[in-house]
């Protein structure tokens, strides 16, 4: 079975680990692809940083710091201290030493002329991930945050330096009009038996992937059902600051609102199915009139078991909506 | 008094520290400039490395590793281990973590469009060096080593990986024909009261500086006497593998041969004076017929005292040859 996941960052990493765990337990052959958000990538100190990708890479490789929730395990920050003295890296952005190794290698390869996709392949080849990561696009589409009465700033500055406290009026991916989906992403979507939208930030992680010209059409043209998993539980974000991002684009922080935001395929949206938490079961009936098949299951990913169970629930919903469509 | 030193690397660093020590002890105002060899710079893992400059910077700042003789003190190599796993840095070239901070900052600034001279200024501004470092040129003139029956390789690969054991037939600085002296280097030479050639490798450290088109003319046009200090003592190199480099260009490893190689100004060469070690005193008489005023003094720089004394001896010889020229 070919499973293609869309998302990025830590929530996506946990979910994809669940998908991989479920696939391994099932004993059947699975191919798992992830189309990764690249819009929170940025240049700092002459190096290309790719937070959403690296969170996935490190988590799938089992070398992530599970206590902090991001970065490499057993990390140190000797180089970053030097970069701050030299004035090329801000003190508000952590650059671990092992992590910098990744950034240096990535930048070296990009400077050699490799595409982002090729860099993903080289980075992913180090470990037996059991998952193939693809950038949404090979183009640079760094998110900039629109702020009332001020110049737009890079998403990382807004997110990390200002902890999303500067009032944002919107998000824009620069040069995205000229971007195209990476070939590997298009292939992964085309061959998918099911597409899963990870419980990542809908605005700044999933949103930019879908905003790459051609990506939404590729998803709608694919034969696979598309099932999303809410990153909002009981009106709150599981981790991160997605609530601020949702508010900035005028959306309520609720599983129902995010479901409506992605939209039902029947009404021109993206989703065939939508998983909400059991605590948000009321959204199932509320979304039915909008043509969206929602289902309430436990969404908390506490460990390998609960993550694998969530993956199984998402695949089951995909199978059910596909069957219903066939019957229809 | 304006003292301008030409050279690069560890031998030069010790000598310049001696010049600085002597100047401080003298109690008079001195301005010390160093025109630094850039031909052993290279790109590795997407980063620009400048070994001769960094040896000077770290030694003058007092943050160098005096046991190993190169690199930063209290160094670690966590990032380099990652780069070797990623395959972007060879295992035979040591990249310390603190040192990598310098390389990352330098590369970031170069990528921003700063000249090598501007990068030197930024790096030098971190500490109160009491010395201004200038690149010989802002152009990239990386030395490549010519090897019989094989393609030329970068100097660092020959020097570090092969420990200079691959038989070299010559050295070539790529694109040096299009290079020009950096403005700061020209100014330092023009305002110098004395120019000192450091006891650096004559072939691959001092040689490329002099080979930058316009550099030799600038030295000959300057009013300052030029005094060189031999890096060869008793027919052997003090440190490094200069003997192999000298042999590759057909020169004997002796203070006398290197003196002849630089040549006396009277016969179209560079030098007004040449300091050899007391153990090489025989060279003084041997070089006289070639028009070169040589003097034998203790050349070993064991500590601050002996280095400062050597600097004083070099300045004294410069004063004497200038007086003799005036009398003439």
Classify the helix fraction of chain A into a percent range.
Answer: 40-55%
State which percent range the strand residues of chain A make up.
Answer: 15-25%
Radius of gyration of chain A: 19 Å
**Largest interface pair:** A-B, 28 and 28 residues
Mean pLDDT of chain A: 95
CATH architecture assignment of chain A? 3-Layer(aba) Sandwich
User: Domains counted in the coordinates of chain A: how many?
Assistant: 1
Question: Main beta sheet of chain A: strand number and arrangement?
Answer: 7 strands, parallel
Written as H for each helix and E for each strand, in order along the chain, the element string of chain A is EHEEEHHHHEEEHEHEHHEEEHHEHEH
Task: Give a short synopsis of this structure.
The structure is a homodimer of 328-residue chains. Chain A has 328 residues and is α/β, with parallel strands linked by helices. Chain A is 43% helix and 17% strand.
Could you please describe the fold and organization of this structure?
The structure is a homodimer of 328-residue chains. Chain A contains 13 helices and 14 strands. Chain A is α/β, with parallel strands linked by helices and 328 residues long. Chain A has a seven-stranded parallel sheet, sandwiched between helices. In chain A, strands 7-6-8 form a three-stranded antiparallel sheet. The mean pLDDT of chain A is 95. The interface between A and B is medium-sized, with 28 and 28 residues.
């Amino acid at each position: 079975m070919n499973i293609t996941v869309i998302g990025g960052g830590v929530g996506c990493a946990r979910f994809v680990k669940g998908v991989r765990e479920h696939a391994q337990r099932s004993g059947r052959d699975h191919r798992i692809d992830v189309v990764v958000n690249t819009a929170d990538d940025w240049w700092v100190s002459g190096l290309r940083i790719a937070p959403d990708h690296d969170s996935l890479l490190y988590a799938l490789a089992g070398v992530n710091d599970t206590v902090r929730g991001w970065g490499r395990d057993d990390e140190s920050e000797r180089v970053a201290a030097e970069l701050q003295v030299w004035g090329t890296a801000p003190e508000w952005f952590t650059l671990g030493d092992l992590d910098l190794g990744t950034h240096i290698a990535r930048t070296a390869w990009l400077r050699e002329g490799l595409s982002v996709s090729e860099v993903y392949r080289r980075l992913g080849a180090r470990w037996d991930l059991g998952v193939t990561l693809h950038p949404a696009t090979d183009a640079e589409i760094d998110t900039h945050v629109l702020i009332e009465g001020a110049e737009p700033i890079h998403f990382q500055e807004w997110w990390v330096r200002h902890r999303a406290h500067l009032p944002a009026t919107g998000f824009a991916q620069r040069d995205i009009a000229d971007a195209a989906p990476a070939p590997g992403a298009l292939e992964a979507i085309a061959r998918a038996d099911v597409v899963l939208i990870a419980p990542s930030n809908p605005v700044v992680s999933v949103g930019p992937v879908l905003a790459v010209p051609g990506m939404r059409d590729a998803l709608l043209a694919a034969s696979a059902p598309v099932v999303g998993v809410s990153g909002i539980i009981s009106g709150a974000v599981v981790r991160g600051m997605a609530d601020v991002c949702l508010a900035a684009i005028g959306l309520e922080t609720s599983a129902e609102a995010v479901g409506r935001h992605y939209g039902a395929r029947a009404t021109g949206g993206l989703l065939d199915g939508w998983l909400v938490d059991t605590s948000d079961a009321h959204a199932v009936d509320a979304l039915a009139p909008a043509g969206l098949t929602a289902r309430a299951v436990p969404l908390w990913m506490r460990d390998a078991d609960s993550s694998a169970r969530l993956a199984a629930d998402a695949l089951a919903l995909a199978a059910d909506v596909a069957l219903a469509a066939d019957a229809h």
